[in-house]
Design brief:
By secondary structure, the protein is α+β, with helices and mostly antiparallel strands. The chain has two domains: 209 residues, no CATH class; 120 residues, no CATH class. The protein is built from eight helices and 13 strands. The strands form two sheets. Strands 1, 2, 3, 4, 5, 8, 9, 10, 11, 12 and 13 form an eleven-stranded antiparallel beta sheet that branches. Strands 6-7 form a two-stranded antiparallel ribbon.
């Protein structure tokens, strides 16, 4: 599969009919249709169905789709461009539904309220409400805090032929995104790990100095994540593209998300608080754990517990992490140790993080047992 190419066509000549190419195009259209419908959460009203949808979307993105970045060359001809294909290796889900899935770590950006769009993270606003995140309507995050989502929502683009015409804005407030954490550039084989470095790579491929330049100038504020007929008019574009299904697909693993903590001053030391509940949810999906060594080693270990050797950790480190996890499971800590100001930075301390995850797991096991007993 060619990952980077320069395409040209001869003027005045048209391609002869190609039945195989037509069949492939039809197959790609069907794949896009099916996938775009997955991004529409308007009919999902149970936490279990939302979690299943996360799994369905992650399977499609990790196995059956690539991100394509096309950049026009100096010529004005639409056929002259450089194309780079990026394979998704790691992602995280964030979704807020006011009725049944109130994930407080979800951004509330306007872009996230329509499914199937690219959302570059905006600056968060201070909020006294620990159960919901507030996001600025202007200004993208910069420095090492950048991030990129594929949006999921109960609202679909009105111009898309792929979303169901029956999709309507839900009575419940709902929005979210799939945070892209790791990509592999198929042209070089390089693995780009970390949301901010990932955005930097896309900016470089697109010839943009900053996010606002890319979105407003090069994309013309069109953040649709799927290729349209108008793409050739732009200097650069980025879209999702189906790839042929192969027989041997990599295993998909799940773990808690990276970088979250319980430091918000409004968080209470109770399993019923949304931040305590959602911090341990296995909403991070990834393949090839042995390659994900730049960030989230503790989270990766939690995702491969039955096969700890896949974490890539040395025995001494692995045993130390597991000892802390067992301390939490045994209940030899208090949740108050990780809440509020004392919880700041827990996600960057593997020992503290593993202890917290073990304790929350123990609390949930007790809660599950109480429910079954009743």
């Amino acid at each position: 599969m060619t990952s980077r190419c320069k395409r040209k066509t001869s003027p005045g000549l048209s391609d002869p009919p190609n039945p195989a190419k037509k069949a492939k195009n039809n197959s790609d259209e069907e794949s896009l249709h099916a996938f775009q419908r997955l991004l529409d959460f308007s009919h999902l009203q149970e936490p279990s169905s939302i979690r299943q949808r996360f799994s369905d979307i992650s399977s499609a993105l990790l196995h059956n789709f690539l991100i394509v970045v096309q950049t026009r060359l100096g010529s004005d001809r639409e056929s002259d461009f450089v194309e780079t294909k990026l394979q998704i290796m790691e992602m995280e889900f964030y979704f807020w539904n006011s009725a049944c899935h109130r994930d407080p770590f979800t951004h509330g950006s306007q872009e996230q309220k329509t499914a199937g769009q690219w959302y570059f993270h905006r600056t968060p606003r201070r909020s006294d409400d620990s159960t919901q995140t507030l996001i600025s309507t202007s200004g993208y995050r910069g420095g090492t805090r950048k991030g990129l989502d594929l949006t999921i929502s109960c609202n679909s683009p009105t111009k898309s032929p792929y979303f169901s015409s029956g999709s309507r804005p839900s009575e419940n407030q709902a929005y979210g995104g799939v945070l892209l954490r790791t990509l592999r550039d198929l042209s070089s084989g390089k693995v780009i790990s970390g949301p901010s470095l990932l955005v930097d790579h896309i900016l470089q491929l697109s010839g943009a100095e900053k996010i606002s330049d890319l979105v407003e100038n090069l994309w013309g504020c069109d953040i649709n994540a799927f290729k349209g007929a108008y793409v050739g008019e732009r200097k650069t574009c980025m879209f999702l593209c189906p790839v042929p299904i192969v027989n041997h697909t990599p295993d998909i693993y799940k773990s808690p998300r990276i970088g979250l903590d319980l430091s918000h001053p409004g968080t209470t030391a109770s399993l019923t608080h949304p931040r305590v509940d959602f911090i341990s949810q296995p909403y991070r999906y990834f393949v090839h754990p042995e390659k994900l060594t730049a960030n989230g080693r503790a989270q990766t270990l939690l995702g491969v517990l039955p096969r700890k050797e896949l974490s890539g950790l040395k025995d001494k480190t692995l045993n130390a992490y597991m000892a802390e996890y067992q301390t939490g499971l045994d209940g030899n800590v208090k949740l108050e140790e990780f809440v509020g100001a004392r919880g700041k930075g827990v996600s960057s301390s593997p020992a503290k993080y593993m202890k917290l995850m073990g304790y929350i797991e123990a609390l949930k096991n007790v809660q599950s047992g109480d429910i079954q007993a009743s």
